[in-house]
């Protein structure tokens, strides 16, 4: 049986090793492309569809650090508020925003960012997701498109965001091409994902490696390759306004803090110095 081909550039990839999934309790094999440095799980878990269950969205599944139901019910209390505001500020540095700006949050989870944007009059935002939590979001009036509805909006959006989405998909180039079809000419795609470059020699020890659901790991060069193949023109911006808010959320999430409090607000949050 031959080695798997890179899902970005098609190069025969090399085995890194195996890591047991804490949830599935089985070993997963990871490979890395010697050309574009993209790392991926192969084969993916047969239970991936079941991973995005009600338990997952309550923080009792594959990733215990998430709690989408709490975020949906208490948007002003969750520390996720810092991410929503940070992403809003970062996009505001890159594109003009007003109530007529068409913004799609692709893979929006519970639609929290969509609700934030609409509540503060930042953009005419909608979301797209097919997970269990999406049904609850729609009941609260958050406008989330279904997959069939999304096909009716080609070339419609000024902004598409993908916040921690691309590491979940088996064919990243196909997803990026789909996003490009949804954008207007010269529209903006903004995405986030973990940076695998600092962990190149110790990928299997990286906490971000959740092989049941995170099936792709990008270095800047591999993400640039995927974006270019999908027809985008990648650009790099060093810590735009809002960056500190996103990092603030990620740190609080990583140490298990889910609610905003006077104590964490007293911390003088600043971005670490560039190296």
How would you characterize this protein structure?
With 275 residues, the protein is α/β, with parallel strands linked by helices. Helices cover 31% and strands 17% of the residues. The chain is built from 11 helices and 9 strands. Helix 4 crosses helix 5 and helix 4 runs antiparallel to helix 10.
| Multimeric organization | single chain
Counting DSSP E segments of at least 2 residues, the number of strands comes to 9
Mean of all residue-level pLDDT scores = 93
- Report the end-to-end length measured between terminal Cα atoms: 43 Å
Unreliable spans: none
Query: DSSP strand (E) fraction?
Result: 15-25%
By secondary-structure content and strand pairing, the structural class works out as alpha/beta
Compute the CA-based radius of gyration: 18 Å
Largest sheet, strands/sense/barrel: 5 strands, parallel
Helix content: 25-40%
SS field, number of helical segments:
11
Tell me, briefly, the overall form.
globular
H/E series = EEEHHHHEHEHEHEHEEHHH
Q: In what order do the strands lie side by side in the largest sheet?
A: 6-5-4-7-8
